[in-house]
Amino acid sequence: EAQVTQNPRYLITVTGKKLTVTCSQNMNHEYMSWYRQDPGLGLRQIYYSMNVEVTDKGDVPEGYKVSRKEKRNFPLILESPSPNQTSLYFCASSSANTDTQYFGPGTRLTVL
Amino acid sequence: KQEVTQIPAALSVPEGENLVLNCSFTDSAIYNLQWFRQDPGKGLTSLLLIQSSQREQTSGRLNASLDKSSGRSTLYIAASQPGDSATYLCAVKRIVANSKLTFGKGITLSVRP
Questions:
Q1: Residues of B in contact with A4 (CB under 8 A)
Q2: What is the distance between the alpha carbons of residues B42 and B74, in angstroms, rounded to a whole number?
Q3: What is the distance between the alpha carbons of residues A66 and A45, in angstroms, rounded to a whole number?
Q4: Is B75 in contact with B47 (CB distance < 8 Å)?
Q5: Peptide bond into B8 cis (omega under 30)
Q6: Average of per-residue pLDDT values in chain B
Q7: What are A27-67's pLDDT values in tens digits?
């Protein structure tokens, strides 16, 4: 089954404790992105990647890091999480050919 | 800077009604526009994608149209059902070679039995 998976789905952590949210897709897609969704602000892009070793900042990259060492994986790293990073995070992927976006189920992160 | 607006933020209709959801964008230089559905606490599911050269796309009871020059798109849902209750978001992709999407804030639709 074609899908985008994210782990963990739920995470409660404390300020300053480094964490990684994993994202993996099994569709051999070139493009991958991370978004955060906040009430009243909608979905905003954090980082995106056009292919292996190619990443670029989205609209709200501060406080986040990403890497794309393999085509299928695109982890989101929070080196020193802060309470304003409490949000619902989505990973998405798409093919360069079709452009239809496939979203993961989301990761709800709470930073205390 | 591209801005995408969806008004109203919420809509409640009786079952069986045909309805139209609106999406407007400020920069007409778009590559494509997508409509998504989001159920509470879930991820987004792509419903329809319209390329900038197209006027409309259809899938089952859904029809999406695009008028680039006026910066508008509509999602038409025929014979609405309670199972259509969800949040509907539109997103535009800029006319550059990357995967950046700009989303509207969505319309939360409730279809009453």
A1: 43
A2: 23
A3: 13
A4: yes
A5: yes
A6: 93
A7: 999 999 999 999 989 899 999 999 999 999 998 999 999 99
Residues 5-34 of B with CB under 8 A from A: 31-32, 34
Report the sign of the C-alpha dihedral through residues A6, A82, A65, B46, in that order.
Answer: positive
Strands B107-112 and B44-51: unpaired
- Residue B9 makes CB contacts below 8 A (sequence gap 6+) with B105, B106, B107, B108
Residues 6 or more apart whose CB falls under 8 angstroms from that of A62 comprise none
Q: Which residue has the tokens 């955060």?
A: A36
- How far is it, in rounded angstroms, from Cα B30 to Cα B104? 14
Cβ–Cβ gap A101/B104 under 8 Å: no
For chain A, the average pLDDT equals 94
Each residue's pLDDT tens digit, B25-51: 999 889 999 999 999 888 999 999 999
Q: Which pLDDT belongs to residue B99?
A: 59
